[in-house]
Amino acid sequence: MKQDNQRIVITGIGLTSPMGNNLTELRDGLLNNGSGISHTEIRHMGVVAAGLCKFDEAKYQPKKMRKRGTRAGAISIYCTNEALVDSGIDFASVDKNRVGVYLGITEHGNVETENEIHDLYNSHQMDVSLWSHHHNPRTVANNPAGEVTLNLGITGPHYTIGAACAAGNLGVIQGVQQLLLDEVDISFAGGISESTATFGIFAAFKAQGALGHHEDPALATRPLDINRNGIVVSEGGAVYVLERLSDAKKRKAKIYGEIIGYHSNSDASDFVLPNTERQIECMKMAIKKAGIDINEVDIVNMHATGTVQGDIQECHAVIAVFGEYPNVHVNATKGFIGHAMGAAGALELAGNIPSFTDGYIHPCKKIENLDPECAVRNLVNGEKVAHDVKIILNNSFGMLGINSTLIVQKFKE
Q1: Which of 132, 225, 310, 343 has the smallest count of CB within 10 Å of its CB?
Q2: Contact, 272 vs 107, CB < 8 A?
Q3: Class of residue 49 by CB neighbours under 10 A (exposed 0-12, middle 13-18, buried 19+)
Q4: Residue 92 domain-assigned (yes or no)
Q5: What is the mean pLDDT of residues 92-121?
Q6: The overall pTM is greater than 0.85
Q7: Once rounded to an integer, what is the mean pLDDT over residues 117-124?
């Protein structure tokens, strides 16, 4: 039995998503067939389907600082402050040297670089003296986490975890590990993405034939459906307050859940195509570390991006691990909010956590024509399912073969 100082719990959640700016709004959309996808104009691309966030950038920072900073930083600041408020921590009395910020990202700096180059060619007549002197601090990889420390006066460690679309999970995992190592007493951990503000990611997916599209934007991303045609790029963020259970108990904090297992590994086989065997290993190792039986898992939240090979390979992995276990239900989130890249794992976990208290498993966005290769057992399709949820397994996989699995349990003494 672990001691309380070896158990890591979630005591605050802050988020912005294409389907709402807090956990209540996101959960409501997931349970009631909402959609966060809309058509928008992207420079050099024209009209595309995307998942855009609409939160108040000035809620927690002055406009002067936002002007100097970045969209990714604004998302990070908003989510972290929302998580802090939600946690109820008296932050004024906290030793800021013992607070860490660990945020997963896909890429960072593309938005600001593209904007500067656009202005250089179109407004500045190639006069490089007009290039922004804010460019370097805006584009360094640690910027999103660094902006949070500036905003909140945090003097403990901060960094971003570049792990493609597995990054949201890995930000949380890093926060857990730093608490277990006694490097910090509070971790702000999760993932963020500002990808919808850059044309490059849209252009690359289109060139690959992997950019989802439909005249109805709500149907532009259809994971597991035989008629799916690719990814819808989204932005967003989710940040968790993580603490040792011993500290959470001292201040009588509300507890959303306990992180009991995780694992990450690498495919080492292809730049883009996933590897089923490595995904199987990742899930099995996380379950082993959690010290649970496979049939104890109530929800498997799939990565399920809406690409043909990605969906099929992951479904084969889920079938291999969970196919014989009747208790395990499978859902996916990207049909509702698109692919939030570095924020995906953290956001999708957040969308499932209320299952512990409301007693429902949110469905996949309605799949009209399920791909036979994706026929996983107990797929929750279109309608929520009542279930006593105690354990959630959250998958996030990324390019260059980075895999992550995170397991969260309903809190019990």
Answers
A1: 132
A2: no
A3: buried
A4: yes
A5: 92
A6: yes
A7: 89
